[in-house]
Amino acid sequence: MLRCQWPATMTPISSVPAAAVGLRMPKPATRPAARPSMSSGVAPLVCSSVALTQSRWRARSMAWAPGMKGSTLGSLRISSSASASAASNCVKQTSPAAKLIRPPARCHDSRPTGKSIAKLGLSMSGTAATASSNLDSFSIVDAQGDVLHTADGRTLIDLFTAHGTVWLGHRHPDVRDALQRQLDKVWITGGYATPMVQEMRAAMNGFLPEGYLLASLASTGMEANEQALRIARTLTARNGAVGFAGAMHGKSFFTAALGWDNGDGLAIPQVHRVPCGRGVDEAQTLAEAGVRLRRGGIAAIFVEPVHATSFGWEGGPVFYQALSALAAQHGALLVYDEVLTGFHRTGPSFCFLQHGVRPDIIVFGKACGNGFPVAGVAVRDGIAIAPRMLLGSTFSNNALAAAAVKATLSCLRALEPEARVRAIESTVQQQLLPALAEGPIVLSGKGAMWILTFPTAEQAAACARAVLGAGVCIGFHNRQLRLLPPVTIAPANLRLACQKIAECCMLVS
Ligand SMILES: Cc1ncc(COP(=O)(O)O)c(C=O)c1O
């Protein structure tokens, strides 16, 4: 099996000639000077030997949208001049960062940091450069707040947060305590009433934008989207759905067919995936959606408000308003999948508020239980939910999940999340945009959700590896790195993590 082998003796990247590792050095005149690292003044970057499986790369690339052009709201586009020849010198991505996460082996009884790593007396220099950095061998034994600790003694600032689930930071004490209290009462009742589910329902209804009510909890975002489809199908007595290429809604047969098929290429006749994203005109996307709606039989249109798995694409408000009008005109329900964008990730409680629309159904997940596996569906208050509209799966609406959701909502309320998200947005932009100027890497996103798109998957993987080696955990897939910092991240840690990312981007671009 081909695996990416790291040299027995690790060499700081700064002491390796750039050409020797296939990296193009930044032009001194146009790039800021390298910033000192947090504790040692030396960026602990490492580089690997080469083990590229070209066919595997090609297979991965095919699962993603083809080449991008143009820019979207909140994104910076810089023309690509990167050489494809870099591919042969870059490292192979052996696994998505998701595989790096392991349950913590031990827990401390301490609060989330809210402090910088430096203040905690932790160091992420040195060890990051000298420990094994094969992604498959990377094991996290402890996580707290915005930092992760690995089995081999490294400390990482977490901008991955397990796909954006740990929004309040790892092991948030209030969520943990709420779960602990519920563990001592009742875990699951299979749908029989519990006080905790009722309390959570009240809390969720208080959190949702005016005019929306919780329909049901589910266990995953994918299940919640299936739930939304069932509600729409029951209400409209239709079977079809419209989705948009590049949107992620989950990995079940239906949800994958909607927008992002995870490479399996399967299709369902009643599910219509409309071309969408960079390189596709919004008017064309709208026209294609209109054609599908006019043919009839469409129960719902599914929207991911920011395509966080596909280059951070987001349409303009007019696009979403036109879509909403189309849905209403043809008697279809508008479903907003806020699994990633919900709970203030882009600023307001839900991203649809920025689009000036009122979806019929909101799907949420990820952040709502701060890492506890829970998701859910809310509906416009004119929609009456009958039991036959719900999936009623075994674990839905269990009391433990409800305790996690209720505690997460209560913490969020106390945090002033919108101000925090604004501060995160401005730090990310201030730290990354100057470093990316005149380079080929594109930064897209908003709030606490950012995507870096590279000219090639090999460059993205090389950068991801360097970023991990520099002590920052990020998500990556194919040509993209994704940054999903927790809303509670210490400003100094965010700044430091962004500095490291900027340095790594400059090395691979
Ligand atoms: C927008 C969106 N919807 C749905 C899902 C699926 O959620 P889950 O993985 O919990 O099934 C995801 C997962 O990444 C997502 O980003």
From TrEMBL:
Cofactors: pyridoxal 5'-phosphate
Origin superkingdom: Bacteria
Gene3D superfamilies associated with the record: Aspartate Aminotransferase, domain 1, Type I PLP-dependent aspartate aminotransferase-like (Major domain)
InterPro entries with a match to the protein in the record: Aminotrans_3 (IPR005814), Aminotrans_3_PPA_site (IPR049704), Class-III_PLP-dep_AT (IPR050103), PyrdxlP-dep_Trfase (IPR015424), PyrdxlP-dep_Trfase_major (IPR015421), PyrdxlP-dep_Trfase_small (IPR015422)
GO molecular function, one term: pyridoxal phosphate binding
UniProt cross-references to SUPFAM superfamilies, sorted A to Z: PLP-dependent transferases
Keyword Transferase found: yes
Keyword Transferase: yes
Keywords from the UniProt entry: Aminotransferase, Pyridoxal phosphate, Transferase
Similarity comment: Belongs to the class-III pyridoxal-phosphate-dependent aminotransferase family.
Protein name (record): Aminotransferase class III-fold pyridoxal phosphate-dependent enzyme
